[in-house]
User: Fold this.
Amino acid sequence: MIKKIRADQLKPGIYVHDLNCGWMDHPFMRNRFKVESEAQVRAILKHGIREVYIDTRKGDDIKDAIPEEEAKAEIEKELVELATAEVQPEIATSFNEEIARAKKVHLEANQIIQNILKDTRLGKQVEIEQVEPMVEKITGTILRNNSALISLCKIKTKDTYTFQHSVSVCALLVSFSRAMNLDQETIRQAGIGGLLHDIGKMRVRDEVLNKPGKLTDPEFTHMKTHVEHSHEILSATPGLSRISIDVAAQHHERHDGTGYPNGLKGGEISLFGQMAAIVDVYDAITSDRVYHKGMQATDALRKIFEWSKFHFNHQLAQSFTRAIGIYPSGTLVRLESGLLGVVVEQRESSLLQPLVRVVYDTKRDFHIEPKDIDLSQPFGQGGGDRILGHESGERWRIDPQKYL
Assistant:
C-alpha cells in the first residue's frame, strides 16, 4: 500500500516509493529505493525533502502513515473549491485568432534567447535592447489570450532545453503576473527576469550542464552555482530592474528556507522570487528529458499544491493555478460522454469548464473530426458535458499539439 509520511520518520527497512520533490531538486540516482542506512535518511533531509511516499508492500510500515488516496483527496478538494470560486481574466482575442501570432513569437523568442546565452558563454555582456522588445511581444500575446502561448510551452527538445525552458518560464511568469493583476510595466520586468533567469548556466561546465543522466553530488553542487552566476551577470547589466534580478537570484529559494543559494525563508524572498520558484519547478517537472519523463500538467499542478505546504507560498500556488487552469491548455482530457479532447482555452466562469477540442470517441475507438465544445455553456449550446480527468496522449496515440 502506498502511504505518505514525514521524511524524518524514515528509517532503514522502509521502501521509498516517491521522494516527492522535483527531480532537479535532488541528486539521487533513483526516486524509488529501500532505505539501507541512517546516512541515506540524513541525505534526504539535507536536500530539504519534507514528506515522502512509501510502499508498505516492499518495506516496513509507519503507524500514523496517511494512505495515498487520503492525501490526494485533500488536495483535490481544495483544487475543486478554487476552480469553482475564482473568475478568470477577460480574454481579448480567441485562441484561434491568437495561436498563429503566438507560434511566431515563440519561435522568435527561442532564437533570441539562444543567441543571448551563447554570447554570454563567450563573455559578452547582455544586450537589454535585444531582450525588451521580445518580452513586449510575449506580454502582448499573453494579454490578448492567455492560453495560446502557454499551450506551446510543452514543446521542448533535449538539445535546446535550456533555451526553451527560459522562454517557457518567461511566458508562464507573465501569465502568473497577469493573474495577480499587476501593472503592465511590472509584468514586463518579471518577464525579462524569467527570460534571463538561467543565464548563469552558461558558466556551468558543459559536461555537467549537458550530462544525459543524474548528477553526482559534486556535479549537483557545481550546477547550483548557476544561480549566483545569474545574479552576478544580471547585476552588471545596465538597465535591469530589481524585479528582473530577483527572479534570477531567488528562483531556487524555498519558502521553508531549504532552498539555495542563500537559504532565504518566507518574506525574506521577494514576491517575484517566490513566483519564479513555482514557475521554474512547474515547467521543469512537465518537461521530457533524456533521463526523466515529464508529468502531465494537471499532475504537476497537484504536486505544486502539495509542495506549497512547505516549499512554496500557498496563496501564490493558488494564484498560479488560476493563471493556467486546473487543466492547462494542451491537456488531453476525457469527458463524461466518452469523448477525448484537447483543452484549448480557459473560461471565465470556472477552471473546470474550459473550451475543449474533441478529437476521439473512446466508445467507438475512433478518431473524429475535431469539434470545439465550450463546457461553460448550457446543454444544447455546446455544453452539457464535463471533464472526468486527464489522459495520456501516448496511450491513445494522440499528440495534443497537433490540434492547437
In short: Residues 95-324 form a domain with the Hypothetical protein af1432 fold (CATH 1.10.3210.10).
